[in-house]
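Bumping with the actual sequence this time:
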Amino acid sequence: MLAAAAVAGLALGPVRIPAGDVLRILAGDTGAGPFTTIVRDVRLPRVLLGAVVGAGLAVVGTVLQALVRNPVADPFLLGISSGASTGAVLVVVLGLGAGATTVALPAGAFVGSLGALVAVYAMARRGGTMTTGRLVLAGVAVQYILSALTSLVLVTAAEAEHLRAVLFWTLGGLGGARWDALLLPAVALAVGTAVLMALARPLDLLLVGEEGATVLGLDTGRFRAAVFVLASLVTGVLVAVSGAIGFVGLVVPHAARMAVGAGHRALLPVSALGGAAFLVLADLLARTVAAPAEVPVGVLTALAGGPCFLWLLRRSSRTEGITG
């Protein structure tokens, strides 16, 4: 699926390129004229960035659902993506860290995502327990607060480039993909996924419940704290280059579980591949559905993920009230 999605992403667009020419260009053939420049310099970085961001968001969503034992956990719904967006916007608008440098943006996004996650988790975990209703309400509350803060910063700055930055990080998009922007998110994805794969057994233990995991020797408090920091770091780096793209981490893990079950040693890599294919296809649709205009890819992922979220919330609310 990912290979087919990548070829389609390279071949389709305002200029349609035959799939055979795409494959020859990827193999090193430079005789395709202007098609070579379009594929190598314009579309290939975008497809690769979409694959990296989609894989990372899906992996983070899979891990968050295990950490909080909740099917609606997702970097976007829990406010992590919104926190990362706010942190990145503050870096740009306030000129922190000498402007939007490759280091300052991910650092600001990481601080914002970690702060949002800590706030949501603290509000949702009342009396030692956490329900779907409280988790969703806490995530919505944090998103409203962060949206208000971002709007306040924008009104204070009131410059055109700042407005574009806010819209980019709010709606999400891959239009700014460049070769030099790929390294950091690719490293964050590779390292984060490798570490989480090594932690597959502790993540599986969390599925049996807090008490069961503790009896089996897992220090759940320290483990959750460490993985929360790692998830926030990966999300912050991804949002710094793509903006807040929602629902990838909600939809893809559920589809992956249907294919390979709940064991994280198989679930994590399958979620990564599924998330990569999903976002590459979503970005292809964003580029072509209203051509020559481009729809923010976050809008399309929300349209796909919203109904899935409502279905999961309805299924969860059968056994608990929305207020917990």
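The tokens above came from a reply further down the thread. The radius of gyration is 20 Å.
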